[in-house]
Backbone:
């Protein structure tokens, strides 16, 4: 489904490449754990896979096409409908309620979506993640673990083919971490690709393909 | 509706930043609105005054030129008098087209009005000054028992009472923006009886004001193409008394120069303040956009297009601009209207507020222009932020 061909990434030329010559293929129904120490480039690799960062070299092939060579409009469409991304930090829309935080990013400039249906679906996912009583709270009223679950609900709302979760359990207690990893793992069982970057030991207990960033 | 809701959320997101946009816009809209209304009032007053001057020359008693100038500019009636013979002595001078005389009785309080009214006596047969200002909606032939009133003088059931006597209102003048609006106009036929009533009513009259064979001024229009200097020489030769001559049109041209100066200054201030405010808005919008960088990147992650992101950043700023400029305009409107009389007195120039339709147009223009300027000021940071690489914009330091 996603193929990385000779990928190299650098933030600036003087600092050299974060990694180079990465060749990997990821398929449906896979739960992939990218492990490695902090600063090794796990988040960067996820960003490259999702076309949120252009590689310095190489191609990211999605469904047979180099995603970075598609038009901006097509990339936006893929991001909206095919990819779900859970960022490392809990970035939220401050003045919006939790349910709006989950739905709003998809509603901007997309008149074809029905807000009510989207909110119903968002409510269901948030309830599955144990947040049914927080739907109308503001982000600053939730804990870090709760916000991380909101971020997962947001990423999964459109039932994307690919979910990229960047350190989803970092800084969370083990119970919350387990809820999140369970949810992501179960999602991958629906013939989806879920790629999680983490150095959390708990993640390695799942039936997953484990990739070590240091040996890519 | 959804856009409006989104804009309100954007404004509420950081009320302090919103205030940094709101306050400069209230100030500039206040300045722009008030300044334009004052400018327009002066222009309108000036245009009205030029129409009202209506003569090439004005003859007044020697030594009263300054008072006569003030009479022309502001409409306040002077207390200067000379013999009616002067009027008769110039009637037959060659090259004079029209001549008419007036008598002023200054600032006597009357039952009709909350403030003082000024009484002008004129000759309807020869008049070419007053008649052109009569508002056509109330007209009847004026006789010794009737009166013409200024636009701000209120009649009761078509009558007004002066020195204990009621006079039928024959006509009402159009608005001039000067104290002519609070004047009343009698024909010379009423002069003797009004002066008697005034004395009996306890009004203080000078010795001059008690004489019915005096006049205050003579207005002259000359034939087209005649030598004005020659006519003046002839007038000075013909009139026995010492006289001063005022040239209303020269007065108007010097006033126009003053007005142009005021107009230029206010517009320079507008431009300078506008540029300053624009830069303040740009800086505040850069701060806002930078502060929202990660939120914007998040939206881009979920496929919100650059165009929509720019529009999101713009909407809040434009909503603030509309509310702020409307607030500034309303405040300016209230203050300018409330203090219009005080302004008119202090500016020492004819001053006539613009019509309601012009004021409404000004509201629309100020709000639209400021909304546009604000949209432009938020455009540059919005374009920059929306163009950042999503992952780099989303990352926190140290991640």
Residues:
């Amino acid at each position: 489904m996603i193929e990385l061909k000779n990928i190299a990434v650098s933030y600036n030329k003087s600092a050299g490449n974060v990694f180079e010559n990465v060749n990997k293929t990821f398929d449906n129904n896979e739960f992939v754990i990218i492990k490695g120490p902090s600063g090794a480039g796990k988040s960067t690799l996820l960003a490259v896979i999702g076309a949120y960062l252009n590689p310095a070299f190489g191609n990211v092939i999605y469904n047979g096409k180099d995603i970075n060579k598609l038009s901006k409009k097509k990339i936006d469409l893929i991001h909206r409908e095919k990819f779900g991304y859970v960022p490392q930090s809990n970035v939220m829309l401050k003045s919006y309620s939790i349910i709006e935080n989950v739905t709003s990013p998809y509603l901007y400039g997309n008149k074809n979506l029905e807000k009510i249906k989207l909110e119903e679906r968002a409510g269901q996912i948030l309830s599955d993640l144990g947040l049914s009583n927080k739907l109308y709270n503001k982000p600053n009223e939730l804990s870090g673990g709760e916000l991380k679950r909101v971020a997962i609900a947001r990423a999964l709302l459109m039932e994307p083919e690919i979910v990229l979760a960047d350190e989803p359990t970092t800084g969370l207690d083990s119970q919350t971490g387990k809820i999140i990893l369970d949810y992501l793992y179960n999602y991958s069982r629906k013939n989806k690709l879920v790629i999680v970057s983490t150095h959390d030991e708990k993640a390695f207990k799942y039936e997953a393909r484990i990739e070590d960033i240091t040996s890519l | 509706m959804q856009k409006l809701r989104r804009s309100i959320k954007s404004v509420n997101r950081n009320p302090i930043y919103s205030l940094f946009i709101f306050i400069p816009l209230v100030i500039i809209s206040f300045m722009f609105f008030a300044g334009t209304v004052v400018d327009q009032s002066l222009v309108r007053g000036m245009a009205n005054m030029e129409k009202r001057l209506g003569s090439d020359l004005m003859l007044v008693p020697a030594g009263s030129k300054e008072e006569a100038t003030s009479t022309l500019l502001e409409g306040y009636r002077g207390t200067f008098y000379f013999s009616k013979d002067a009027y008769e002595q110039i009637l037959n001078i060659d090259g004079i087209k029209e001549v008419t005389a007036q008598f002023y009785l200054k600032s006597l309080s009357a039952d009709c009005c909350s403030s003082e009214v000024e009484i002008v006596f004129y000759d309807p047969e020869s008049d070419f000054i007053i008649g052109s200002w009569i508002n056509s909606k109330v007209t009847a032939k004026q006789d010794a028992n009737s009166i013409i009133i200024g636009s701000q003088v209120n009649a009761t059931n078509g009558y007004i009472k002066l020195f204990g006597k009621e006079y039928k209102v024959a006509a009402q003048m159009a608005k001039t923006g000067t104290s002519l609006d609070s004047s009343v106009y009698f024909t010379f036929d009423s002069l003797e009886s009004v002066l008697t009533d005034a004395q009996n009513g306890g009004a203080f009259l000078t010795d001059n004001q008690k004489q019915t064979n005096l006049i205050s001024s003579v207005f002259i229009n000359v034939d087209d193409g005649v030598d004005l200097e020659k006519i003046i020489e002839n007038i000075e030769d013909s009139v026995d008394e010492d006289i001063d001559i005022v040239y209303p049109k020269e007065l108007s041209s010097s006033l126009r120069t003053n007005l142009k100066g005021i107009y230029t200054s206010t517009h320079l201030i507008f431009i300078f303040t506008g540029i300053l405010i624009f830069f303040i808005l740009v800086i505040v919008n850069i701060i806002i956009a930078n502060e929202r960088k990660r939120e914007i990147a998040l939206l881009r992650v979920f496929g919100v297009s650059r165009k929509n992101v720019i529009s999101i950043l713009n909407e809040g700023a434009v909503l603030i601009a509309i509310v702020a400029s409307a607030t500034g305009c309303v405040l300016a409107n209230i203050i300018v209207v409330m203090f219009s009389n005080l302004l008119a007195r202090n500016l020492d120039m004819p001053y006539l507020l613009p019509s309601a339709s012009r004021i409404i147009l000004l509201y629309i223009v100020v709000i639209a222009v400021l909304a546009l300027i604000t949209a432009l000021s938020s455009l540059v940071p919005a374009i920059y932020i929306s163009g950042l690489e999503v992952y780099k914009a989303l990352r926190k330091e140290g991640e």
Observations:
- Chain A has a mean pLDDT of 91.
- The beta strands of chain A are 2-9, 19-26, 31-35, 57-62, 65-66, 83-86, 162-166, 193-197, 209-212.
